[in-house]
Amino acid sequence: MSVETVNAAWYVIRTGARQEERAISNLNAWRVETFLPRLKVRRLNPFTGAITHAPSPMFRQYAFARFDASRLLHQVCYTRGVHSVVRFGGVPARVDDSIIELIQSRIDGDGFVQMRDELKIGDRVKIKDGALTNLTGIFDYRIDNTDRVAILLTAVSYQPRIVIEREFIEKINSNIAL
């Protein structure tokens, strides 16, 4: 294990506006280990109404870099695309390895961080967007090869089943009465 590896730590890098990719590419050229977590963001075309998903940084204008600050801080700070290294009290703020590992553990096969809880049959859910906002129900099943799920709406004496985009529902605390 080299001295460089022993003294290396993760730091938060602030990038220029929409310069995350550029900063990562340039830091990688310096052989600095980097991590830019990405999300798949839902976008609605206002003209066609078509829904698309586009990659977006999890933290806009921020990325992570692992390096030995005593040797490379100046070089990292003056890399194209990098605005600064986040500091507290003038000292570069270290990020614990476990935080990076936690984010990395939530990355799916497509390279995107998955933020939502996994649902199990019978979980109580609430619709958080759309025409049925704030209605509650019970998760029934996931529709194969889609991001859609079926839930049973909770009503007085009838539970209609609806199919809805997964991102429009959230799991709610099971201790709360419906």
Verbal overview:
With 178 residues, the protein is α+β, with helices and mostly antiparallel strands. It folds into two domains: 3-105, 2-Layer Sandwich (Alpha-Beta Plaits), CATH 3.30.70.940; 124-171, SH3 type barrels, CATH 2.30.30.30. Helices cover 19% and strands 37% of the residues. The chain has four helices and 14 strands. It has helices at residues 3-7, 20-29, 69-77, 97-105; strands at residues 9-15, 33-35, 38-44, 51-57, 62-67, 82-85, 87-88, 91-92, 94-95, 124-127, 136-142, 148-153, 161-165, 169-171. The strands form four sheets. Strands 1, 2, 5, 6 and 9 form a five-stranded antiparallel β-sheet that branches. The longest helix is centred in the N-terminal third of the chain and has 10 residues, at 20-29. The radius of gyration is 22 Å and the shape is elongated. The model has no long low-confidence stretch (mean pLDDT 86).
